[in-house]
Backbone:
């Protein structure tokens, strides 16, 4: 087990280079098996979720060559067999193998995916989409068998603009016969990144990034070269950290447009930002004021930044309100922040935060990935040395977080316990 020890109060300056987006990469790797030949995907983040996906590829007989920041996936010897539960449980995104294997072989068998415990997180919309394309879904205990004689394009309306369902249906539909329309599709940049990859492979997808995606099925897809977009959530987390303790902290290799909902809130509280073409420089300012935030699907304020942003709001003057509209159980970071000295009350799906409050070092637990990020931000701000356990959650999504923070002046150590 790993533990992080962080001594707060340091000023962070220098440059943090942002890695490829986790939520793109975890969909692009399963998508690569739809091709008949090898694909090279670069700007892959070095995070444990990618290791877990590569283990699944390996189990399916797919050749995977990894080097720094890139992966070459050759599906020539792919065997369509059941994905073992111990592998699919390691991460949420293992569910993308459902769409990809169904699209390629018209049959997939796997168990319910894993991932952070932040709410019920059903996959009913994914399954409804597969059924609309002509598949039959059988559920036995925890195991799903999804099978079709043939997949036929269809109009699909998503009750919720789900990122996972939108991508999974695209994966299943690219080789279906005829035309599929996904209405109320999610619009996240990661979806555009996946659609661009599939189109480079020969798919015919239009409208990705809008709420209507149209897909005309093709018979064959061929491998290609593709690049993962920068991780807007990693970038957002470091911007929040910069607002808390940065001095000209440069967050580099990003697409600032992907972060507008966050940067506008940072400006509203009073942080100092310089927005460049592919970077943002941020400095801590005195006298931040409280704001209201509501999470929403893209381009709204991302639920994945709600938890780290809570930490920042504890340092803002007055009353802040943070409403979580996407997940029902994404406040696991709050009791730890309260223990560190924050004044936060949970009322249903809303946090009421009074600030500013001084934070004190404590022993805390990273209950999930972004709760862990919230606690790292708090520890960097707090007086004393905070110990964070369950660090494995953080390493699933933040590439070399210890090295990146150390390089800009943080007092942070990773220990094996
Ligand atoms: C993805 C991201 C995650 C992010 C989330 C919302 C990945 C691997 N993960 O998760 O980091 O927090 O988008 O931006 O990309 N829902 C259903 N039925 C379904 C599918 C979803 O009810 O079949 C609900 C979920 O429970 C949730 C909401 O829809 O309340 C949004 O979920 P969704 O967009 O699907 O999130 P994920 O794809 O799981």
Residues:
């Amino acid at each position: 087990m790993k533990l992080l020890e962080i001594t707060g109060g340091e000023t962070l300056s220098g440059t943090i280079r942002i890695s490829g987006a986790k939520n793109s990469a975890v969909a692009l790797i399963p998508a690569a098996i739809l091709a008949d030949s090898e694909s090279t995907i670069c700007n892959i983040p070095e995070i444990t979720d990618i290791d877990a996906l590569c283990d699944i590829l390996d189990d399916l007989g797919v050749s995977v060559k990894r080097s720094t920041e890139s992966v070459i996936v050759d599906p020539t010897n792919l065997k369509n067999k059941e994905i073992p539960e111990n592998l699919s449980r390691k991460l949420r995104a293992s569910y993308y193998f459902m769409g990809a294997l169904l699209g390629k072989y018209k049959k997939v068998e796997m168990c319910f995916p894993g991932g952070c415990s932040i709410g019920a997180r059903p996959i009913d919309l994914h399954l409804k989409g597969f059924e609309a394309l002509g598949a039959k879904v059988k559920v036995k205990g925890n195991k799903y068998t999804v099978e079709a004689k043939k997949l036929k394009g269809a109009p699909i309306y998503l009750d919720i603009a789900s990122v996972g369902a939108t991508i999974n249906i695209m994966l299943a539909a690219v080789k279906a016969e005829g035309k599929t329309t996904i209405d109320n599709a999610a619009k996240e940049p990661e979806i555009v990144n996946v659609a661009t990859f599939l189109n480079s492979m020969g798919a015919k997808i239009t409208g990705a990034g809008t709420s209507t995606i149209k897909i005309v099925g093709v018979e064959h897809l061929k491998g290609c070269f593709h690049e993962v977009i920068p991780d807007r959530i990693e970038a957002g987390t470091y911007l929040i950290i910069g607002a808390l303790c940065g001095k000209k902290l440069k967050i580099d290799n990003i697409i600032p447009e992907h972060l507008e909902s966050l940067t506008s809130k940072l400006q509203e509280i009073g942080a100092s930002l310089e927005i460049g073409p592919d970077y943002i420089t941020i400095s801590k300012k005195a006298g931040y004021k409280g704001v209201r935030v509501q999470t929403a699907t893209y381009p709204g304020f991302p639920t994945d930044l709600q938890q780290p942003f809570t930490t920042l709001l504890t340092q803002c003057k007055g009353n802040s309100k943070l409403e979580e509209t996407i997940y029902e159980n994404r406040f696991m970071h709050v009791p730890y922040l309260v223990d560190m000295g924050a004044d936060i009350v949970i009322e249903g799906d809303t946090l009421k935060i009074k600030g500013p409050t001084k934070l004190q070092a404590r022993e805390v637990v990273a209950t999930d990935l972004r709760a862990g990020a919230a606690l790292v931000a708090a520890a960097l701000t707090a007086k004393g040395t905070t110990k964070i356990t369950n660090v494995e959650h953080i390493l699933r999504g933040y590439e070399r977080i210890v090295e990146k923070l150390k390089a800009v002046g943080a007092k942070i150590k990773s220990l094996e316990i």
User: Anything to note?
Assistant: The two ends are 5 Å apart (CA to CA). The longest helix spans residues 232-245.
